Amino acid sequence: MLKTLFSIASRLARPFLLATDFTPTVTFGIASPAGARARLSILIFHRVRETRDALVPGEVTRDEFDAICAWLKAWFTVLPLADAVRRLQDAGLPARALAITFDDGYADNHDVALPVLRRHGLVATFFVATGFLDGGRMWNDSVIEAVRHAPQTGIDLDGTAAATLGRLPCGSVDERRASLVRAIDAAKYLAQPERDAWVEAIVRRCGVPLPDDLMMSSAQVQALHAAGMEIGAHTVTHPILARLEPAQMAREIGDGRAALERIVGERIGLFAYPNGRPDVDYRADAVALVREMGFDAAVSTAWGFSDRASDLFQLRRFTPWDRSRLRFGARLFRNLATAPETALAAA
Predict the structure, then answer these.
(1) DSSP, res 107
(2) Phi/psi of residue 306, each to 5°?
(3) Contact 326, 17 (CB under 8 A)
(4) Which residues contact 201 (CB under 8 A, 6 or more apart)?
(5) 210 in Cβ contact with 145 (< 8 Å)
(6) Could you tell me the residue range of the domain that residue 296 belongs to?
(7) CA 204 from chain center: how many Å?
């Protein structure tokens, strides 16, 4: 019966959201009531660019994020994630509860996203991979920047560790974008030593220095914390936890947490699984370990909402990629009104 009601509500949401003089709080309140039946939305972002990046056009810009924050403030009760987790457990969530999160630790989180969040009076949680702070660079960004700066003749990988990729064409933006997708998709789930060798080959054949300011400094993490933002753990080197031995996994999670606690000077209670897909990027042993290590909660990238029946160590998150008010709102409603992805069973 409830599923049928939500299906009807989803169809009704479109005309309500279309009306520019209608504030959709009623519509979202249907899908996300207060108290014991509350449904928590958790949004996930990575970067906020100053302007559109032609090579990675899907990333949100400052102006788009500013509009998103305005919509969220008008439609939802935006809470710090730690507070939302506590209130979810206690059946004390308000209607239309929502939390904002960022993954990885990009410098634009501090430089671009923070001023927007502060202007709207919103708090977000930033999950930081500590191994890339203070001049580091994630492997996928090494590939992105190599392809961005490569000569128009492309990147010839014959005779290198990444020889199976052949040549990466870079004659136009479209070619660079296609080469980028191909290289990242091919390398993503390689064993880390093999992936590192692939990335090094691509960077060397690119032949130009790559930026070392893509990720935050420790001082910027401190500044986020001082501004009232939450900081969460996200391992040291952002590995695929499902590929690690138990001791390696414990070091990645524990060392990353310890480094952040030294930086911000307080306990870190929240964790985000790198990449975050259940049974692909992490398994039940990782969930058990995070719980045993005394975290308060952890988030995945499985889509959907979280409620009182959800595993606090596999809270679901959702990426709203639409940029118009109507489509953004409709997709958020659909995420609230549709049965979520299944989490892993307890170990």
Answers:
(1) H
(2) -120, 140
(3) yes
(4) 157, 160, 161, 162
(5) yes
(6) 2-135+216-337
(7) 29
Please determine, for residue 104, whether its predicted confidence score (pLDDT) is greater than 50.
yes
271 dihedral zone (left: phi>0; alpha: psi -120 to 50; beta): beta
**Residue 219 CB neighbour total at 10 angstroms:** 11
Q: Are residues 239 and 276 in the same domain?
A: yes
Sign of CA dihedral 20, 25, 26, 32: positive
Q: Which pLDDT score is estimated for 342?
A: 76
Instruction: Please indicate, yes or no, whether residues 196 and 252 belong to a single structural domain of this protein.
Output: no
3-class DSSP assignment, residue 283: coil
Q: Decide: pTM greater than 0.85.
A: yes
Beta strands 97-104 and 77-78: pairing type? parallel
Residue 96 token pair: 């239309």
**DSSP state letter for 190:** S
Q: Which residues does 5 contact at the CB level (< 8 Å), separation at least 6?
A: none
Q: Which three-class secondary structure state does DSSP give residue 226? A: helix
The residue to which tokens 């049974």 are assigned: 279
